[in-house]
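User: I'm putting together a small comparison set for a docking exercise, and I want a reference complex before I start. The sequence is below, and the ligand is adenosine monophosphate. Could you produce the 3D structure with the ligand included, as structure tokens?
Assistant: Of course. I'll restate your input first, then give the structure tokens for the complex.
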Amino acid sequence: MKSFEDLKINKPQLKALNDLGIETPTPIQEKSIPAILSGHDMVGLAQTGTGKTLAYLLPVLKLLPFSDQIQPRVLILVPTRELVAQVVEVARDLTTYQNVRIEGVYGGVNINTQKEMVSQGLDILVATPGRVYDLAVSGVLRLASIQKLVLDEVDEMLFVGFRPQIMNILDILPRKRQNIMFSATLTEEVDDLIQSFFKSPKKIEIVPVGTPLEKIRQKGFPVPNYNTKVNFLKQVLKEESYEKVLVFTKNKKIADRLFENLNEFFPDELDVIHSNKSQNYRFQSVDRFQEGSIRILIATDIVSRGMDILGVSHVINFDAPKYPEQYIHRIGRTGRARKSGEAIFLFTPADEESFLEIEILMQSEIPIATLPAAVEISKVLMPEEKDRSSEKEIQGKKNPPIEPGAAFHEKSDKNKKVNLGGSYKREIKKKYKKPKTRPPKSRGKK
Ligand code: AMP
């Protein structure tokens, strides 16, 4: 195993790492640091929790000589404001003993303050793509000096629709630059970006694409409806082992409703964040969750992405994710920094397809578990579930509804619970065949 000294990290950063209590490089750091120091383009396939932020910050900082020029030399693009704040914080921690100016910009806040900040001069700019482009268009931010571009969590940036902004930025960046990319998954869109803009990049892969970290214990609980899911949470959240619980819902409406449903049972123990909550509120909630003053955080996918929260004991997929990749991002919130964690997927009959797609993407099965006996199975449907069940009736036998019951809980019964059939599976496999269903061996060897 190599040390940070072996990787030729500079003294000031070694000292900062020491202050942070970081002693030995993680596998992604061991591989990425020399690759980035070599000056080549690099693509790293790694999830959050693998130490990817330091994997690019350390070599980027080493390659950055002192300068007092106004315009930035390194641009780091990330998908969310939370991640901007986090990367800025880590970069500042690493430069305690170095004179480097690092700033972060993101949308949703006053652009004039950011213009002012940028015009003071900086070395590294961490940004969400939309805001950096707006600043560039305004003429205040000039990108002509950028020598290194880091695209962090690029699959997520594309997923949330930043592709046009990324393309616009790539258009105005100097051609001669080093490109560094990190992505949890190699989707076709990510691959297109690599083919179009990267020059024979070094590919580095740590966890095979789509495979969750081994230290995350996964469980799938079949549930018939929303109210049963709420009953499940009311029950399990009483347990002491549920120390720090992140609950994902598919939208703000459900997030707020769930908050209302749980708040009377766990007052002062929970909070909810989504895109309608102010930026400040979101930061504060994440901080309070991080430090342990709240135990349960309900979140939607977009705002939770990239949050560096340590020690999450349980990630609960209250709703199925919209895309299978999203599941991997969600469960990657637990098991971080060498801790083990549990990921729970509460899936309804309507989530069958989603469940299967996730298993195909991960190339492993999510073990099915039995609902605790104390969880009351509710028969009361929410308005949106009523709509869905009437749709099902119209569809007739094509999608037979699943009855919750004993047979529902057995692993061996999992594949019987809906007769998806070989052709159905083949359809999904076809949809996801490139490149996610390739055997791990052949991944990344293009
Ligand atoms: P990341 O994947 O960059 O989000 O990092 C996940 C967590 O791992 C962060 O809290 C880092 O501080 C921590 N971390 C990163 N590198 C190391 C390392 N070499 N040793 C121990 N912890 C680390």
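The first helix runs from residue 11 to 20. The radius of gyration is 23 Å.
User: Thanks, that's exactly what I needed.
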